[in-house]
Structures are given as C-alpha cells and as structure tokens.
Amino acid sequence: MKAYTEMNKQELETELEALKLTYDEYQKMDLHLDMSRGKPCREQLDLSMGMMDALNSTVDLSCEDGTDCRNYGVIDGIEEAKVLIGDMMENNPDNIIIYGNSSLNVMYDTVSRAMTHGILGNTPWCKLDKVKFLCPSPGYDRHFSITEYFGIEMIPVPMNPDGPDMDMVEDLVSKDDAIKGIWCVPKYSNPQGYSYSQEVVYRFARLKPAAPDFRIFWDNAYGIHHLYDHDQAYIPEILAECKKAGNPDLVYKFASTSKITFPGSGIASLATSPNNMEDILKQLSHQTIGHDKVNQLRHVRFFGDISGMVDHMKKHADVIRPKFEAVLNIFEQNLGGLNIGEWTKPMGGYFISFESMDGCANEIVHRAKKAGVKMTEAGATWPYHKDPKDSNIRVAPTYPPIDDLKIAAELFTVCVRMVSLEKLLETAE
Amino acid sequence: MKAYTEMNKQELETELEALKLTYDEYQKMDLHLDMSRGKPCREQLDLSMGMMDALNSTVDLSCEDGTDCRNYGVIDGIEEAKVLIGDMMENNPDNIIIYGNSSLNVMYDTVSRAMTHGILGNTPWCKLDKVKFLCPSPGYDRHFSITEYFGIEMIPVPMNPDGPDMDMVEDLVSKDDAIKGIWCVPKYSNPQGYSYSQEVVYRFARLKPAAPDFRIFWDNAYGIHHLYDHDQAYIPEILAECKKAGNPDLVYKFASTSKITFPGSGIASLATSPNNMEDILKQLSHQTIGHDKVNQLRHVRFFGDISGMVDHMKKHADVIRPKFEAVLNIFEQNLGGLNIGEWTKPMGGYFISFESMDGCANEIVHRAKKAGVKMTEAGATWPYHKDPKDSNIRVAPTYPPIDDLKIAAELFTVCVRMVSLEKLLETAE
Q1: At B136, which helix (H) or strand (E)?
Q2: Cβ(B300)–Cβ(B80) under 8 Å?
Q3: What is the rounded average pLDDT of the residues A181-207?
Q4: pLDDT at B429 (0 to 100)
C-alpha cells in the first residue's frame, strides 16, 4: 500500500471512511481485551505449578547449613538461594541480599532509605533542597512513579537502541551533584526491548558523578527472559565492571523471579558492593527480622540450580514467542510501508514499543479503549506522564490468549491508521 | 529460706561461697542455651507442617472471586485472607490490609511513610525539628529500635500491670504536639505479659492529642496467644472504641501469623480507619504491586476459618505452657522469699519479665552468659537500651527444649542470687 504520507487529501479521506467501517465492526464485538501490563499468562503460570510440590509436610525445611527455614532470622537470605540467584544475576552470592516477593518494593525502600538516612554517611536526601534522577525515556512507569512520589525531579534522557544517551548522562552527572541516581533496565528494556551495548555498560561503570552518593539503579528485570535460543542479548556484568573501573559502590542491581515463577509470590534480590551491603543491612535490621525463607527454599528445591531455571525460561519463551511474533506480523502487515509509525522487534523481555506520528499516541490509546482494548496509558512511559511528542505506546503481548491478542493487535493497527489519517488530514491539501 | 535482705554480712558471705561452687559446676557443663528471643520451638513449628500440604500442583490457586493468586495484583490482600485475619484481629475485613511476612516491617514502613510524606496531609515528620514517641517501658526492643533509627525522641512511660500510666500519657499528648505516637502491646505485653484493662483501652480511645497526626501504634502481637483455655485476657477492640469515641483515625493496629504458623513465612496485617486506609494504600501503590497472595491462600486453606486457628493455638499453648510453668516454678523455688527480685506470671504471650534489685540486671545477664546461657541483653527493654534502674530482664522460655530450659532457669536463679548477694555485701555491716 501507498504510504499515508504520500497520499493526497482525497486518498486520505477514502482510506479513513473504509477504516471507520472496520472500526465500527470491532465496536460491535463488545471486546474486553488487555494489552496494558506485562503480566504472564495462565499457561506461563502453569509452568511453575510444580513448585507447589517442592515442599510438603514430609520434607525437611532445613537449609544445607542446618538453618530451620520455618523460624526467625537470616536477614540476608539463605545461602542456597543466594547461590541460585547469584547464578541468575551473574553475581557472587556474597554480594547478594534476598528479599521478599517484590523487587519494586526493594527499589522503593532503597530510595526511601536514601531519603531518610542517606547513602554511606552522606546527607539524607530529604534534607537537601533538590534531588534529581536521570530517567532514560521511554522507560518503566513504576520506576518513575517512585521518584515522583518522593518529590525527586526527573530529567528525561533519550533512550537509543544501544542504551541511554551516554554523552548526556556523563555530562549531567559530572556537573550537578543534585543528580543522585539513574533508572536503568539494561536488558530487554521496558518498553523497547533494547539491550545496552558493551560500550554503554563500560561508560556507566566509568561515570564520574559529582555526587558521592550517586547510584545507578540497575533493574535487571529481564536478565534471563530471552525469546530465542539463539540471538540472545549479552551485556557485561555491571558490578564487575564498576569494580574494575575503581567505582565499586556505584551500582544497586535489582532482580526477581516474578516473571520466572509467580508474580507476587517470587523472590526479589539486590546485588551490590560490600560497602553498600553493610550500609543496607544495618538499616534492614531495623525493618525486619528476615524475609520468607520457606519461599526461598521452595524456589531452590524447585529449580535445583541455574540450569533448571534456564530450562524453565525456555518453556516461558515457547509460550510467549508466538505472541510477540503474532503482534509483530500484524503490525508489519497492516502498518508496514505506511510511514505512520515504528515499532521495536525485541529478542526478550515483556514489551514492544510503538512510536506513532507526533501527537497521536494518546488518541490511539483512547480509540482502542473505546472499542474494548486496554493499552498502557499513553504518556505512562515518560516521567510525569508527559510524553513530549505524544508518540510512545507500550504494547504488552504476553497476557491475553493468542486469539484475543491477534484481535487486539488488529484493532490497534486500525486505531493507529485512523488517528494518523485524521492527523494528516489536518494539514492535507 | 531467710530473705537475703534480712541476712548479716557473714550470712551473706557464706551463702555466696556456696553459690560460687554451684556456679562453677554450671561453668564446667559447657552449656550453650538461649533464653534471649521470643522464638517458637521446633515442636511448635511442626504444628504447622500441614500448611505445606494446603497447596499443591493439583490445587486451583484461585480465590473465591476468581482472582488467580499466582499473578500480579490485589494490593490490599485477597478477600478470604482479610476475612480470616479480620476474625483473628476482631476487625471488619474492609478495615484490613494484608501485607507480606513481617508486621515489624509494616510498623517500620508506617513510621517511614510518616517521616517522608506525613499522615493525612500533615507535615512530613522529617521536616519537623522534633518528633517524639511515648514508650511504655519496659517494652519491645524492636519497637524502640525503629523510632531510635529515625531519630525520634523516645519518652519512657511507666508500664503498670493494667497498662501504661494513662495519667501521664493523657497529660503528655495533650500538651506537646511534637508527640506523634505511642508504642503499645496491649495484650500479653512484651516483656511482662500484662494486658491492658478495659479502662486503659477506653482512655486510649478518648485521647485528645495536641498533634492531629498522633497515632497509637497498637501491636496486637499476641491477640490469640493464650496459655490457658480459661483465664484468658480480653480487652476491648481498639478501632471500635476509637470510632465510638469520635476518634476513628487515632490508631494503627498491627498483627501477624508469625507465632501462629511460621515466623518469617506468615502473613502480616494492619487494621485501621477508612481515612487511614486510603492514605496508606495511596502510598503502597508506589511501593509494590501486591504481596504474596499464594501464601495468603495457603494460610486460608490450612485454617479454613478462625475456629481452625483457635484450635491450632491451643496446640501451641500445650507445647509452651509447661515451659512457662517450669521456669516460674524454678523461680519460685529458688528465689521465693529471698526478697531480691520479682517476676510476672503471664497468661499468654512469649515472655516473663524479671525485676532484679536495682543495679543488678546487667551483671546477672553477663554472669549467665559466662556460664553459657544467653539472655536478652539487659537494658534492651528500655528506649536507648537505658534501663534507669538496671533491673529489668526479659526471659523467653519458648525456644529451648524443656530440659535445657530448666537448666538455664536454674542457672539464671544462681546468677540472680550471686549478683544480689554481691550487691548487698557492698553495704552490709
């Protein structure tokens, strides 16, 4: 088909009329579909049902070192869980703290602790006039929600296919000691599915921030969440790189099993330097006596080791790969060559990022919703929900059954085309 | 035996010599016993092993309302868990938020949130020059640890057998708007095992604090943790009393199943007014997507309802009642009539509180430790670890096997007697 941008007014109008009829058909279908959140689907959850058999009343709930997982204690997590999660995160178990069920909660608490008590003896952020964070954008809405909630000023940084604009990051952090952190999803980023290049990781490790309490919030949410057996993203391990670069304390690295076993009933973790660990554990001892060791043991017994976890992730990939491919095929089929949008083709993670023509994203999402398909709110991927070009839409293909997903993706492309046509008609002659 | 306070110098010396020989015998035994923490023992933990069978791979992990517990969401907890915990706490399920595994964590987060964001629109505490808490003392060391960590000034309030000195509480909170809270363990208090009288609860509900953001931190840790079938403590329900008194927002009430199922793998909860709930849930939505619903479901399926939980608690009582009685018998036998100490006789909870002669507690604990028996550090039951009379020692009888416990209790009384004799000899003629 001819690119919309090449069409004259009459062609645009004809095309729009035809699409309106299609859209009306969708509206009559009374759809209730959801492509808004990065949630695993039922088939994915079923993959982990075996974990419910990993422990039962006849099983000894003791660790290898004899610790009774049923009782109080072990604030940093049981050793065998640290080994498993260490392998998952590519970190030494000694650099790991195992938490409860939510890495978001660990990130929130990390910011909250910095607010009330500061980092490694530095002034608590709540005592400072201004605290700022760099936010590679589009990015993860729940990251931005934490920093916004704490009144931290968020500065968007362009996100490229190889990672954040490092010239800008280096420049800003070296000049302004009010900049205390940056949110990163280094692998299969939310929402683009981009992975940082080796050079970007190296430059992160070599940052020279003006603030001694600047930290990289490295949310490795999709570290082993590949879609393909081959063509997997590899990125250098950030803790090791920071240590080599003489910046050992620069990074907090987060991960969880939320999208490996059960979201909400997994285990979360933080990997960081010994100095940071000591700082954090001192605080943590006031907050809790320990996290859920029985659930840590349950995970260990279910997976055995990292090899078991990798095999498990292949099963996840087998479930969701067809969904990604279905959406991408529909996008290509219905939008390819029209010159009204671009989208990413991820090799892992949970999202596809769609870039519409400027000023169209909000209306596209609205149009889809009116026909019964819920998308992530437009703007959500930007700090303060302000997408300066109103162009980014996060597409989450994992949750709906594939037949529903195909309908939702088809409808989405109809909405993209309609809204783009209307936009073009505003200035067409 | 003659009261030590009636003995002359020579009698005291003779008694001390004899006890030194006994103490030497204990030292030779190379003991490693622990009466320091309120931890359930192995037999108690075994009572909940059936919970490990409540869920397995063949069981549907859906709630009654169809919610799939395996996936994200439901920030305030699943409905059936709210019903069960509501019955446990004597609160309407609608007034309850179910959290993760630790009520201590909920209390910490509640203070932390007040620090960074304030309560119901009031100034965040971190922006105030001075924040103070009332601390009925002796009290729970981990409560005091939270407020100390946040730099909150702690004011000890005498703790009587019927609750805190309410004249003092009423006077202080009505005059000083820097006083923002009070730590309470209203039933089977830590460490005395005291329960607040009806009048004390009524007076709490009718407090007229100068600070609009004053809150009662009502840690109902031992609400159903009775030692006896009869002779159970009953106290009025504080949320209901506050509502009746026109003070609906005055209280945060905390509880957990840590000492019902598995410490560290239970579920924690908070009950409070609709206004406070709204305030808290707004914050919580930035911190997490939800707590561990699978574990909530596991608890519900295991207990069925509150009746199942009450039956379960009777089994706990059967395990630990003989331990309490063994310690109390040894105290009575070895210290009765000597006039060198007093101790409480709890009907529930996890502790016995021992009051030595002034200036002896620290040395008694030290002496016991030297012979291989670990007690809670003297002073721990007071804010800043400063027991003004150096007289309170918390005794935790639940964890050691009963034979070990008897040895530890015997040794403890030897230490009490030795240290008291030495103290009396300082001024004997």
Answers
A1: strand B132-137
A2: yes
A3: 98
A4: 81
**Are B323 and B397 spatial neighbours (Cβ–Cβ below 8 Å)?**
yes
- A429 pLDDT more than 90: no
Tokens of B11: 């009698």
Inter-chain CB pairs, A–B, below 8 Å: 163
ipTM for the whole complex: 0.97
For A160-221, give the DSSP string. Answer: ETTEE-HHHHHHHHHH-TTEEEEEE--SS-TTT-----HHHHHHHHT---SSTT-EEEEE-T
Assess whether pLDDT exceeds 90 at residue B233. Answer: yes
Question: Which element (helix H / strand E) includes B241?
Answer: helix B238-244
Token duo for residue B262: 């598995």
Cβ-contact B397, B327 below 8 angstroms: yes
| Of the candidates A126, A128, A76, A80, the residue with the CA atom closest to the CA atom of residue A100 | A76
Hey, which residues does B159 pair with through a beta bridge? B164
pLDDT, tens digit, for every residue of B93-148?
999 999 999 999 999 999 999 999 999 999 999 999 999 999 999 999 999 999 99
Residue matched to tokens 């595994």: B101
Say yes or no for a CB contact (<8 Å) between A288 and B42. no
Instruction: Write the Ramachandran bin of A188: left for phi over 0, alpha for psi from -120 to 50, otherwise beta.
Output: left
Which residues does chain A have within 8 Å of residue B49's beta carbon, measured at their own beta carbons? Answer: 57
pTM of the model: 0.97
Per-residue pLDDT tens over the stretch A44-72: 999 999 999 999 999 999 999 999 999 99
Instruction: In whole angstroms, give the CA distance from residue B88 to residue B255.
Output: 9
CB B108: neighbour CB atoms within 10 A?
A: 23
Exposure of B223 by Cβ count < 10 A (0-12 exposed, 13-18 middle, 19+ buried)? Answer: buried
How would you write A113-163 as a 3-class SS string? HHHHHCCCCCCCHHHCCCCEEEEEECCCHHHHHHHHHCCCEEEEEEEECCE
A399 Cβ partners below 8 Å, 6+ apart?
A: A34, A35, A37, A38, A39, A40, A41
List, in order, residues 6 or more apart from B397 with CB less than 8 Å away: B35, B320, B323, B324, B326, B327, B351, B352, B405, B409
On the CB side of B90, CA atoms within 13 Å amount to 13
- Residues composing chain A: 429
Which pLDDT score is estimated for A221? 97
Nearest CA in chain A to B282: A149
CB-CB neighbors (< 8 A) of A264 in chain B = 69-73, 289-294
**CB contact set of A340 (below 8 Å; sequence gap of 6+):** A3, A4, A5, A356, A357, A416, A417, A420, A424
- Residue A102 CA to residue A79 CA, distance in Å, equals 19
d(CA B27, CA A6) in angstroms, rounded, equals 95
Q: Are strands A251-256 and A268-271 parallel, antiparallel or unpaired?
A: antiparallel
Residue range B4-27: mean pLDDT, rounded: 97
Q: In this predicted model, what pLDDT tens digit does every residue of A372-423 receive, in sequence order? A: 999 999 999 999 999 999 999 999 999 999 999 999 999 999 999 999 999 9
Cα(first)–Cα(last) distance of chain A, in Å?
20
A 10 A CB-CB count for B160 gives 15
Instruction: Give the chain B residue whose CA is nearest to the CA of A62.
Output: B42
* Residue B104 to residue A289, Cβ atoms within 8 A: yes
